[in-house]
Fold these 2 entries.
Entry 1:
Amino acid sequence: MAVAERDARPGEWTHADARDLTFLGLVTFGDALGELADRGVGVKILTGDHPGTAAQVCRDLGVDPGQVLTADDADRLTDAELGAVARRTTVFARCGPGHKARIVAALRAGGYTVGFLGDGVKDLLSLHAADVGICPRGAVDAVRESADVVLAEKDLAAVDRAITAGRHSGGNIGTYLRITLSSNLGNVFAMLATALLLPFLPMLPAYRARAR
């Protein structure tokens, strides 16, 4: 996708304003995949396509497909063996709905937090098996109802932004809890100690009787 810009002007914009633009560059899925990798997020591709097709698409996106694992290969592995192989495999080809769900479950059993992105009815099992089910807004109704997150735009960069926002929120909550606990812990210990040592309660709630 080409990205360009021009100076803003007051008033409403029309298609006629899409001229005299300054070209900024191209945005591809490869950029989004690279950003996810920078966040420490591993990307696995589970598809029903031919292994050669899946591997070539990965190369076009700048992703090294490595050794492609097919559904037939997965069927010959136990759950524990599949989990070990799935950790070092990027592309899984010829996968049916059951194979995808089994791979997701194997990764979760290995201690990974797994998010699954899908838009078809065949992805329902995997959406339920994952920690977080994700789908685009244009997915079928059943998938949108089952997903934990519905992307407002069909863009992998939205997943990266969601992960970043979630990590920031989690960090802010942790910081707030540490500050609150550290500032109030002394008060709690002081009240407990005085309640045990003194023959009366050091603080009582104020009560004001209202005459009728």
Entry 2:
Amino acid sequence: MNDKGPMDQPVSLMSRLADWIAMPEQMHGTSITEVELAAIFGVSRTPLREALNFASAIGLLRRERNRSIQIPPLSGEDMLQLSLTREALEALVTFQTASRIVAGEVSIEGLEKLNQRMNALAAIGDTGVLLGTGLDFHEFIRVHSGNHVAAGLLRQLMLRMERYRQCIRTLEGRSSHIVHEHDGILDAIRNGDPEGAAKAAREHVANARESYRVELAKHGLF
């Protein structure tokens, strides 16, 4: 018997659904049916419904009584709530991981390698892969925080945040800022300063929030 949920596979149907919802075409919201989605993903409706139930539970979409699926438009209020919640949780897990690194319980090597890769990608202008590596940087911090509750909440939250992250994917200058901000988090950890690392993580999320706000305003969504 397979008791795995929609988030248990590295490239799951849930991840594919979240990526589809995050596409710019869905920025202003859309309505679609299960049959249409099943055709898009090339799956039967049974596994699709499992993914849809999970997506509905975390607020990515709404399932209507007429069996239609509503993808809500992006909104300033939604973005603010998600981002402020993320800021608090990222600061928490960053403080905890930094504390564990300082105590010698966790090696900093993996984080160093990810940061080096981000700097190399920034140098060649590969924004897409850089942003993905940035997610890996934060996932390393979550995994090694020892706080499975916060890590799980952040993973769910980031599925919803991805819609806003895609808004600034091509924003000029943001990639270099991301690398600089990650450097700041890592520098604080190297210096044995968990509180400084948590502060840098807060500032990093707050800077992203301002970029989201500016981009949403351009589309009349803030």
